[in-house]
Amino acid sequence: MRNKLIFALSALGILAGCFAAYLFSLNKPALPPAFSPPSDPYVSGIYAEGIVESVQRSGENINVYPEVGGTVKRILVAEGQAVYKGMPLLLIDDSIQRATTEQQGAQAQAARTLLQELRAQPRKETLEVVEAQVGAAQAALKTAQDEMDKQQAAYQLNPKSISKDALDSAIDAAAAARANLEVAQKQYDLTKAGAWIYDIRNQERQVNALQKAYTSSSALLSKYTLRAPGDGTVLSINTSVGSYVSPQGAYDAYTEGSDPVLVLGTPQTSLNVRCYVDEILVPRLPPASKMKAQMSIRGSSIKLPLEFARVQPYVSPKIELSDQRTERVDVRVLPVIFSFDKPKNVNLYPGELVDVYIGE
Question: Cα–chain-centroid distance for residue 136?
Fold first, then answer.
């Protein structure tokens, strides 16, 4: 009985092994690819990597950097929002610069008021005072002159009637009164003449210097508000309220570098593709009038025709597609720009890398 059980189990194991071998020997059909890889649609096409960007007459997307550093106080736009030239985009804390500007404005106003005061001289009340001083000096001179005449008349009638010292004192008093009248009259003439022309010119220069300082400070204050340099669309905002920005941009913790504070582009109905053609392939580029191109969107089987826009006639290092700090080979590329109309049913945004074949 035991031998029969062992024989049955052995037979069952052999059958199970044969069935498993049969299952593993079956060839399962391969899954279809999620997308077709890019292929050259031309007989002798040139491959190039491209970056999608907004349409610009020259250059690339508009990178907005502040001209001053500070803490972001408020962001006035959102990504994807249409903006117009001169529209405020972002506010940087300007409390210190605003106080400085107000101080310089007050100093310029004080200097301007002093200049007006100099030009308005002589003041009516001051002129009346010096006129009264002249009148008092004239009265004092008359009194001293009368006293001297009396003393001289008495001395001539009888030299012994008064002492010689009293006569000399009367003469000296009259001379002093006459001198005081001359001083009062000159003071009157000086006051009536008004401010000295050199004082006025010096004050004019002070006003001019302080006004220019105020104008310069006001211009710097306006730099704390970032404004759109032209009409377009906000593609990217690389900072947040409370973050510090500088003329070098906003710090990116991911790349450990600086990014533009904002990136502006044109509306997304039309886009450009900036292709970077290796310098070795540049001689093979067809003439501009015959140049055609096709773009393949990565991760999909979508292929879009491109229209030649222009060539940026400067071969530069390939740092747009690689990190220039770690690039060990001096690979140089020629930027060639194509344009296309964005399909409504395709998700495609500036900044994407695409594969481009250029032919004729």
Answer: 67
User: Of 179, 194, 209, which residue constitutes the final position of a domain?
Assistant: 194
Backbone dihedral angles phi then psi of residue 77, each to the nearest 5 degrees: -130, 170
Domain with 352, as residue range(s), is 34-55+266-360
Tell me whether residue 10 is in a domain. Answer: no
Q: Say yes or no: 271 and 342 in one domain.
A: yes
Whether the pLDDT of residue 228 is over 80: the answer is: yes
Q: Which of 265, 291, 321 delimits the end of a domain?
A: 265
Highest mean pLDDT among 81-95, 269-283, 288-302, 321-335: 81-95
Lowest mean pLDDT among 178-187, 230-239, 341-350: 341-350
Domain containing residue 76: CATH number? 2.40.50.100
* Count of domains observed in the chain: 3
Please report whether residue 111 resides in a domain.
Answer: no
**177: domain CATH number?**
1.10.287
165, part of any domain: yes
- What pTM was estimated for this model as a whole? 0.65
- Could you report the per-residue pLDDT of 179-214, keeping only the tens digit for each? 998 898 998 888 888 889 999 999 999 999 999 999
